[in-house]
């Protein structure tokens, strides 16, 4: 006999529940999108208060973790890499010490990514609020 749910679908036919974003701490610092090391240097000069540097949408997939580490240099833990739909890339970024990742992978891949308790609270499934650049 097949295990069924009140919806009438068997366990194997039911879609996995969506996993929501989580963070170890609220992202209360301003988030600026940058794409070059010069942007990071410029922001440090123009915005002396703590901030988070975030890559452009999907840039992790296009340029990779080494590129992002060069862009943010010693500020890797105060940065967010947008990994698009790649849970594998998100895991590599977290292992490299990047503060947070944005990952829009399938529910199954997100479930696997969330299984790592050490990094679970640093995975975002949506882009945080972006702060306009200081003038």
From TrEMBL:
Location of region: Disordered: 1-24
Extent of Polar residues compositional bias: 1-10
Source taxon at top rank: Bacteria
Name this protein carries in UniProt: Uncharacterized protein
Species assigned in the record: Gluconobacter thailandicus NBRC 3257
